[in-house]
UniProtKB/TrEMBL annotation:
The keyword ATP-binding does not apply. This is Cobalamin biosynthesis protein CobD. Belongs to the CobD/CbiB family. It is found in: Cell membrane. Converts cobyric acid to cobinamide by the addition of aminopropanol on the F carboxylic group. Its main location: membrane. The keyword Amino-acid biosynthesis does not apply. Pathway: Cofactor biosynthesis; adenosylcobalamin biosynthesis.
Length: 311
């Protein structure tokens, strides 16, 4: 493990790299991992007995070797190389700039009245039937995505890096990717994807609540706390509920409600309190995630400085 000072420096370097470079356009490791996960699923997710156990085997085969390799590389490097390796791994796990780009790609045409273009862009980041969404539906979908992905792709990555270093952030990112690929409640993945989904829920439980706390501190605090306390449990996801309830309250916007999916209209609880979502709420959600990231970095740097001072 890195020292607290080196850990803080690695986090700052990773966030700056994400800000300057964004996600690699080619040869992103998660793209290759997605191919590997697809091959494992095709081989193991077949009709037959014990689908949950085959799902567990698939998760272990996908996650453990790559996490071990990342950890081994870290151990074999000298201290300076460990800092560089940790910073690069965390950068590849973060997606703050990617989140910003996806959100702005919806907000800009929506604000200009170009609903067709906004629908096209929101369809890239949510699983809803984008062509059935009106202006408010597009804004709600994108705002919810910014808040939830801020938890998954930013704060959870920082959390697991702080808690368990390189192996922690790699394991979390891989499990989160498997959940995105296999964590569906349909005939194909209901049992096979259960281990990935439950493991992702477990790994995101504390980061989600820290994210909700971050949104609460940086937004309309009283409203965010009230929405978190009274609305989160109504959501079908144990982690998305606190994040989106607190986030909606922090932004003083109303999210949730009925939404069109391929299987029909899904009735969802209402989250938040305030006005309807709009292009402005998308950009406000992006800004909330950004401010939260800098708050986490500032707190980490302060802790590292205090630890150095007390030595």
């Amino acid at each position: 493990m890195l020292s607290l000072t080196a850990t803080a420096l690695a986090c700052v370097i990773a966030v700056v790299l994400d800000r300057l470079l964004g996600e690699p356009r080619r040869w992103h490791p998660l793209v290759g991992f997605g191919w590997l996960a697809g091959r494992l699923e095709a081989r193991l997710n077949r009709p037959g007995p014990a689908p949950v156990w085959r799902g567990l085997m698939a998760v272990l085969l996908a996650v453990v070797p790559l996490t071990a390799v990342a950890a081994l590389v870290f151990v074999l490097l000298p201290p300076g190389g460990q800092l560089v390796w940790a910073s690069v791994v965390l950068w590849l796990a973060l997606s703050l700039r990617g989140l910003t780009e996806h959100g702005e790609a919806v907000a800009i045409p929506l604000a200009a009245g170009e609903l067709a273009q906004a629908r096209c862009q929101v369809g890239r980041i949510v699983s809803r039937q984008a062509e059935a969404l009106d202006d408010r539906g597009v804004a709600a979908a994108a705002t919810e995505s910014m808040l939830e992905n801020g938890a998954d792709a930013v704060f959870a990555s920082l959390f697991w890096f702080l808690v368990a270093g390189v192996p922690g952030v790699v394991a979390h990112r891989l499990v989160n990717t498997l959940d995105a690929m296999w964590g569906y409640r349909n005939d194909r993945f209901l049992y096979f994807g259960r281990v990935a989904a439950r493991l992702d829920d477990a790994m995101n439980w504390l980061p989600a609540r820290l994210t909700a706390l971050t949104y609460t501190l940086l937004g309309q605090s009283a409203t965010a706390w009230r929405c978190w306390r009274t609305q989160a449990a109504c959501w079908d996801s144990p982690n998305a509920g606190p994040v989106m309830a607190a986030g909606a309250g922090a932004l003083a916007v109303t999210l949730g409600g009925p939404a069109p999916y391929a299987t029909g209209i899904k009735a969802r609880p209402v989250l938040g309190a305030g006005g309807p979502p709009s292009a402005a709420s998308i950009t406000a959600a992006i800004a909330l995630v950004r401010r939260g990231t800098w708050l986490w970095l500032a707190a980490l740097v302060l802790l590292a400085a205090m630890a150095e001072f007390m030595q």
